[in-house]
Structures are given as structure tokens and as C-alpha cells.
From TrEMBL:
A GO biological-process term: DNA replication
Natural source organism: Cerina litoralis
Gene3D superfamilies (alphabetical): Zinc finger, CHC2-type domain
GO MF annotation: an example: DNA binding
Name the record gives this protein: DNA primase
Length: 222
């Protein structure tokens, strides 16, 4: 009996954990966000338009495409296809949602600067779909770009990233055009004296998509 009571209390605490943070830990980041809600591509299936909403005030999610919703435990169970006990183990290291009073007295951080969280091979469906909409094949983009997760003004985002020679990033997704410091050019060296100069990431990718293997050095200027 004592064991059942402990499990119940764990579930009650876990329901207060942030859905946005749980989604970030699972590799899902919002396509757009406001003060009251965040919108995602559904974590349950491939889709081209966002249909998955998280209410920040209620800390609840709803998938408009499937007509289902719930709390953070329901979400983890469905995404990971696991029992409740395993979902609780997954959530135990996440911080709880913050109350308004906690936010009011929390010392503000410098959130106007982009902070790079993770860099990996392009694989997110949203990034692949955006590349396709711009006429760029995944194989072409993967030669030069990476999938970058970052924070900006307290929110998490993902983007297609192209790193410059000073290790800053140009960041693009369907909704956002951004960049991290320091700003600089991206120079792709192929060992040739001829040079192509492009204005940005997608100009470079478009030339490579159309021209194939060019025996030229290329510089993207931002």
C-alpha cells in the first residue's frame, strides 16, 4: 500500500514538469511561439504544417491533427511508447514549470544573445521539409550544413545552420532567419583560384544543387 502511495505522489509531481522542456529533451522544438503558447510539428507523425500546441499557462498539450491531448506524462508515454513508470524515470531530472511569482523575482539572464545548444547531422522532418520547399536535396545540404538547436530570448529553437570561419552560425528554418555571433564569411575551399561569392546560405546551396560538383572556391557573405 505504501508503494502505491509513493507512485501516486510521483505522478502528481511529474504533471507539473514543463512540457516544453520534455519536448526539448526528446529533440522537438517549436516552429513558432508566443507568450501564451508554443506550436510544434507533431512529434507523433510526419507533417508539413504545425498542428501540435502547448499551452504555457496550463502546461497541457493538444494535437489538432489527431484530436488528442493531455499532460506531460501522457505525452512521454505516447512518444516513447513506454509504461508510466519509464516515463517518470525520463522526467525525473527535468525542472518543474515555474510559477508567475518565481518568474517575477528571478534574476534576468542575458537572453538577447543566441546560445548554441547542440549541433548534429540534419535529420529533423521540419528541416528536411523546408529544404525541399526551397528545391534543395538533403544530400546537398548535408555537405555544408548542420542541424542546430539553440536558445534565444529564453526559448528553444532548431534550424539549418551554416558555420562561418569565425565559428558563428547562420540559422534558417521555415519561420525564422537568425544568426549567432561572431558574424563572418563562410569560405568553402576546394583548392582552386576561381571564386564564387554568394549572398547567403541558400544561394550557395542552390548553386551547388544546380551546378553539382564545381571546381571552384565558394564564399558566402552575410
Amino acid at each position: 500500500m505504501k508503494k502505491e502511495r509513493t507512485h501516486k505522489l510521483s505522478c502528481e509531481r511529474a504533471r507539473a514538469f514543463s512540457i516544453e522542456r520534455a519536448l526539448a529533451k526528446l529533440g522537438h522544438f517549436p516552429a513558432r511561439t508566443t507568450e501564451k503558447e508554443a506550436w510544434y510539428l507533431s512529434p507523433f507523425r510526419p507533417e508539413a504544417q504545425v498542428s501540435f500546441k502547448v499551452s504555457k499557462r496550463l502546461n497541457r498539450w493538444y494535437d489538432h491533427g489527431a484530436g488528442i491531448g493531455g499532460n506531460v506524462i501522457d505525452l512521454v508515454v505516447r512518444i516513447k511508447e513506454c509504461p508510466v513508470g519509464e516515463a517518470l524515470d525520463f522526467l525525473k531530472d527535468l525542472p518543474s514549470s515555474f510559477s508567475f511569482q518565481q518568474q517575477l523575482f528571478k534574476k534576468p539572464e542575458n537572453t538577447d544573445c543566441i546560445k548554441i545548444i547542440n549541433v548534429q547531422t540534419l535529420h529533423h522532418f521540419g528541416a528536411i521539409d523546408y529544404l525541399a520547399s526551397r528545391g534543395i536535396r538533403l544530400g546537398t545540404a548535408r555537405k555544408f550544413c548542420r542541424e542546430v538547436t539553440y536558445t534565444f530570448r529564453g526559448r528553444h529553437y532548431f534550424a539549418i545552420g551554416l558555420q562561418n570561419i569565425s565559428e558563428g552560425w547562420e540559422l534558417r528554418n521555415k519561420s525564422i532567419k537568425n544568426s549567432s555571433s561572431p558574424k563572418d564569411v563562410t569560405h568553402i575551399k576546394n583548392g582552386h583560384s576561381k571564386l564564387i561569392v554568394t549572398e547567403g546560405m541558400f544561394d550557395l546551396l542552390s548553386i551547388m544543387e544546380i551546378g553539382g560538383k564545381l571546381d571552384l572556391d565558394m564564399t558566402s557573405w552575410y
